[in-house]
Amino acid sequence: MPQVYELEIDGFQVTVILKSVKNMYLRVKPPQAHVEVTAPYYVHQKDIEKLIRERSDWIDTARDRILLTQSQHTNPNLLSGWTPAKEEEARQILESTVPRLLSQWSTVIGRQPTRITYRRMKTRWGSCTPSTGRIRLNLALAFVPEDLLEYVLVHELTHLYERGHGEGFRNRISGYLPDWRQKRRALNSYGSY
């Protein structure tokens, strides 16, 4: 008979299912992007925690992809129809808006990216490589309200301090933008890029 229990590990709510299997399996399940680990009965909780921590970037990517897919069903093709002219317009909007926001927020946060680039992205609004200090922003952000662009920028700047989306990340971004969760939900309602 399987044993099922819940854990919170670095901000992830995880359902653990212990049963007669040989290996540990990690899944992110639609529609709510819930994290689930199936493991043999003899596996220690510390091994499950280690797996979650080691795979946190993969979990974030999988969750983003599932949640984005869900938002596309509720608001399909809102930002589709890219043309060279639309891409150029988006780039100009971001190049005129982001430096002002960056000036404001890099002072508050205390970190400055080494480089910011803009491009079309299929599954993310932005990304950060902490080791190089590089931030990439989705061109589609040019067509959402500025406070949502601001949220993505602050989110990525926060990654210059905190990798992943664990408790340290959530505490830090909450200090900068207490309503960041609402902004994230609003942003994901925009659907496809």
Automatic annotation (TrEMBL):
Domain YgjP-like metallopeptidase: 90-189
Classification via Pfam families: YgjP-like
InterPro entries for this protein: UTP_pyrophosphatase-like (IPR053136), YgjP-like_metallopeptidase (IPR002725)
Superkingdom of origin: Bacteria
The protein's name: DUF45 domain-containing protein
Organism whose genome encodes this protein: Alloscardovia omnicolens
